[in-house]
Amino acid sequence: MILIIIFIVGIILIGRVFYIQVFAYNKLSKLANDLWSRNLPITAERGLILDRNGKILAGNITTTSLVLIPNQIKNKEQVTADLAEILNVSYDEMKKHVFKNTSIERVHPEGRRLSFEIADQINALKYDGVYLLKESKRNYPNDNLLSHVLGYVGIDNQGLSGLELMYDNYLTGINGSIKYYSDGKGKRLPLSEVYDEPVNGMDLYLTIDLDIQKAVERELDNVMNKYSPEHALIIVEDPNTGEILGMASRPNFNPNNYQTYSVETINRNLPIWMTYEPGSTFKIITLAAAIEEKKVNIFNDYYYDSGSIMVENARIKCWKAGGHGHESFLNVVENSCNPGFVVLGQRLGKENLFKYINDFGFGNKTRIDLNGEEDGIIFKLDRVGPVELATTAFGQGISVTPIQQINAVSAVINGGNLLKPYVVKRISDNASNTILFENNKTIIKENIISKDTSNLVKFALESVVANGTGRNAYLENYRVGGKTGTAQKVSDGHYLIGNYILSFMGFMPADNPQVVVYVAIDNPKGVVQYGGTVSAPVAKHVLSDVASILKIKKTNEGMPKVYNWFDEKYVVIPDVTGMNSDDAKKILKGFKIEYVGSGNTVINQNPHGNTYVSENATIKLMLD
């Protein structure tokens, strides 16, 4: 019996040892390793976010964090008191960390991202079990610039909004550590230290041009200071690729200190989130559809605008009291005449008009690579009556987003292809010098309108800037096309009085667009509320900067501007280089002339010949 019992116990012991060594080895080894090892974390740097030219938009700075190994701390009361004083926290609060029964304790949040001054004070104590570790902190060197697009990160470097959230998996690196083994009392064992180097995150290269973005931000600041609007926004897009070159709105925030702003301010990226009635900028879509469907000849078809038009029992008024009288449909576009566009909508019919509205992307997300985009609201076809058709034709009664508008107009002026807009150009691993992902032009819908229609619309919109409501966006020496918008705002189902969103959609060069700019200003104060008065000059300033940044060539081949009596007049200056100075003076009669050097022959002039200059300009002539 004893022999049998010993045999059974032996079998059980052998089986138990076999189980421990084979089946439970990994689990027990991990538990033992956790008991003996210490792992001091080293934060990996988040990937950089850069503009299209490699300029840093979001980077990192090195800070210090406090980590404790409670078993190694000898005089815990003294350590608690000293750390509490340096970190300016209570003794009881710090005691929770120092006396905690754990192998390693990160002092959070009091000990995170310490200044160098505080870190030096802690380091000078030279206490056992008190460690200062490098920690990477996200930094936005341009503060508020591009804030809604970039987004922001939390205290643990996790993306919380914008691109930081959308591409968090790529931007987040792999943390490293300093590992070592300790004895039963928590003391470090010699020669046991292992350093695991952190792996930094991937870099994002954006389609944004920092110089264009700065121009956009400057103009928005000027708008806020001058008009105190409720909101304001500007988008700059390449109509041929869908690349966003600049995007900003007000109010904005500083992602370095996002905690000091309201949730609404930091989370609402207005260019993709805000929805409102587009107003007259939407007439570009109606015009393109009417021309494509051969419902109008803008040169030969005429309309008499009496100041209003009756649709069923509704009277739809023109913005100009008394109307524009007898006008061609090109004049209807130039004058932004609502009754004229009602007629175009009626000629198209609701099926045709809403087909083009859908084809140009309204009512659906553009799928831009940013979070928080809205759809907008378009009438369902079975709910479109004569009045809804009429108001939709001139941009009232529907709701769209700014990104939908600029993307649709880009399709109109690029020959008829609706593109997917995007802000991330590529994702790059600089450590291995490889490109993981690259964004390219994506066509959502092809040939919505023909190239001939596109060219005719561009001509009409250039005429709007030269002769019509967009005259304040006219840019001498460049061909600019565009359309103004003045949209009434709705609240509780009623239109507000004297409260408008003023907009302007502009592009250049008008014959071969390289850039399109959309400006929208919500309820500016102390000014007559018309898009041509408020938003067009802002767009002009942005286009002027963009022309310089993108090196768009000057030309005097565009439509000459029709000046009003109060406008500053511009004329084309003759080229007098190579002429005798006396002959040059006669040709430049009426201009102020300054000479540089001496002699009888003009070898250079500024401004250059065959460009537009103010009638009161000073011409500098360099002599031989």
Architecture overview:
The structure is a single chain. With 624 residues, the chain is α+β, with helices and mostly antiparallel strands. 33% of the residues lie in helices and 24% in strands. It is built from 19 helices and 26 strands. The strands form 8 sheets. Strands 2, 3, 4, 5, 8, 16 and 17 form a 7-stranded mixed sheet that branches. A 5-stranded antiparallel sheet has the order 10-9-21-20-19, sandwiched between helices. Strand 2 and strand 3 form a beta hairpin. Helix 3 packs across helix 4 and helix 13 packs across helix 17.
Write the layout of secondary structure elements.
Layout: H1 2-23, H2 25-36, E1 37-42, E2 49-50, E3 56-68, H3 76-87, H4 91-98, E4 105-106, H5 116-125, E5 130-139, H6 147-150, H7 162-166, H8 168-171, E6 176-181, E7 194-196, E8 203-206, H9 210-227, E9 231-237, E10 244-250, H10 263-267, H11 270-273, H12 283-292, E11 302-305, E12 308-311, E13 314-317, E14 325-328, H13 329-335, H14 338-359, H15 386-393, H16 402-413, E15 418-419, E16 424-429, E17 434-438, E18 443-445, H17 451-467, E19 481-491, E20 494-508, E21 515-522, H18 531-549, E22 570-572, H19 581-587, E23 592-596, E24 602-606, E25 612-614, E26 618-623
Parallel strand pairs: 2-8, 23-26
Antiparallel strand pairs: 1-6, 2-3, 3-4, 3-5, 6-7, 8-16, 9-10, 9-21, 11-14, 12-13, 15-18, 16-17, 19-20, 20-21, 22-25, 24-26
